[in-house]
Structure formats: structure tokens, C-alpha cells
Design brief:
9 strands, globular, Polyketide cyclase/dehydrase/lipid transport protein, START-like_dom_sf, alpha+beta, 5 helices, 184 residues, Polyketide_cyclase/dehydratase, Alpha-D-Glucose-1,6-Bisphosphate, Chain A, domain 4
């Protein structure tokens, strides 16, 4: 089932992996570059597993239309219902150090289908994006194919998942380099 509402994009697919394993992959920020279907996520800024609502985890990003090319996103966990749902809203650090958020969220809902499979629904919701942000970013900023590719990538990772990602594994070795270290 793939649907697009005016301000919500929803894509779902069956995965040949238990919901618990798929959830573990999603809760590991080190896997997000390999999951991403746009190619914009480069590498984690934080590798601590996602464990609680309110937790922040950062990503080094790249987009050719971003003023700096390379930039950072700081996600705030909004939903964490192991192994059924995980969601976060991307944000950014403002000049005063406070966090700001653009108003869009990513959410994964997992429904077990037996012991060794599950249905994963990925929702990209931009319904709370304020008018000033919409003046310079078109929503959605990617097509349905990118979201479908994200689910395909997640399915592949979950099928072969054996635990926490290692930054030296082949999944992350091919990620485009990003300026995400100090002074970036």
C-alpha cells in the first residue's frame, strides 16, 4: 500500500525479518546512511542506540541544493514503542545553541506477520512545516521512489542483521564523505 495525502507520504512493504530485528536496525543510527533512499544521509554524528523518547541523535548530511552542501541534522525521538513504532523529527542547532525543528517527521510502524516477517509502514509527514520553511523547501523534497528504496534498503539490512553496525563494515564504507567532525 502506497499513498500520498496532501502533506503525508506513506509507503509500506513486507520484510522477511522479525519486527524486533527490523526495530533494532532502525534504532541504530549507524545504519541510517545505508537505509536512506535519497543518498543524503552520510554518517552518524552519534552512534548511541536510540533508547528513549526525547533522545537526540545526529546525522551528517549532504544535499547539492543546500547552501553549504554538507550539513548536520539533529533528530529528536518522538515515538519509541519497541518493537512496534519509532519516529523522529529532524532539527538543527540554532546560533544560540537551542534546537529548532522544521516541522516534518519520519515514522516507522512495524506489524509482525508471523515469527519471521513483518509489515513496515514508513510515513513522512510534513503537515506541520511552517510557511517560512515552505518558502525555500518544496515538500516533499523527494519522490515516492526514494521512500520505497529506503524500505528496500531496510529490508536488506534486517534480513542479514546480526547486531550493532560497525563503522568499518561494507555498508558504511561506500557512504559519501561528509564534513561532520569538529569545525565542519
Amino acid at each position: 500500500m502506497d499513498t500520498t495525502a496532501d502533506e503525508i507520504l506513506v509507503v509500506a512493504r513486507r520484510m522477511e525479518a522479525p519486527a524486533e530485528r527490523v526495530f533494532d536496525v532502525l534504532a541504530d543510527p549507524a545504519t541510517h546512511a545505508a537505509i536512506d533512499g535519497t543518498g543524503w544521509v552520510c554518517e552518524p554524528l552519534t552512534t548511541e542506540p536510540i533508547r528513549e523518547v526525547g533522545q537526540h541523535f545526529g546525522m551528517g548530511m549532504y544535499h547539492p541544493n543546500h547552501p553549504d552542501g554538507h550539513y548536520r541534522i539533529h533528530n529528536r525521538v518522538e515515538v519509541l514503542e519497541r518493537p512496534r513504532a519509532i519516529a523522529w523529527k529532524p532539527g538543527y542547532e540554532q546560533p544560540d545553541g537551542a534546537m529548532g525543528y522544521g516541522g516534518w517527521t519520519w515514522r516507522y510502524d512495524l506489524e509482525p506477520e508471523g515469527d519471521e516477517a513483518c509489515r513496515v509502514t514508513l510515513t513522512y509527514d510534513w503537515s506541520r512545516v511552517p510557511a517560512p520553511v515552505r518558502e525555500y523547501i518544496s515538500f516533499p523534497p523527494f519522490g515516492t521512489d526514494h521512500v520505497e528504496r529506503s524500505l528496500d534498503n531496510l529490508a536488506g539490512l534486517a534480513a542479514s542483521w546480526s547486531g550493532r553496525a560497525d563503522h568499518d563494515d561494507p555498508v558504511h564504507r561506500d557512504a559519501p564523505p561528509g564534513r561532520v567532525g569538529p569545525g565542519a
